Amino acid sequence: MQTIHHEKKWVELSIKEKLSYITSLIMIGSGILLAFLSFFLNAHNIATGVLIYIAQTFLVGGTLIGASIYLKSKWIEFDSRIQDEITKLGDKKDED
To answer: For 44, which DSSP code?
Structure first.
């Protein structure tokens, strides 16, 4: 299977993709910040509620990034397959 490399600059991303990445980074950053603050300000102890929040921020943030990347790669793969089929049909018509 051919590996698809698709590079986009930040400027070329859609608003939806930008919001997805920004939201993910903010969520993951807030989880890390809360973990450090809770650990160092609470006598090296992290409360259960804080652990649940950290887990949820990592889970949702990672899911947003992963789903965005996965769907983008599948769309590119689908697009390249369609392009190949169109090219094959065009070549067959030229031969006839």
So the answer is: S
Reported as type and span, the H/E element at residue 19 is: helix 15-41
Distance between CA atoms of residues 90 and 67, nearest Å? 34
Residue 12 has pLDDT above 90, yes or no: no
Long-range contacts of 57-62 (CB under 8 A, 24+ apart): 57/27, 57/28, 57/30, 57/31, 58/28, 58/31, 60/24, 60/27, 61/23, 61/24, 61/25, 61/27, 61/28, 61/31, 62/24, 62/28
Tokens 């090219």 belong to residue: 87
- The model carries a pTM of 0.64
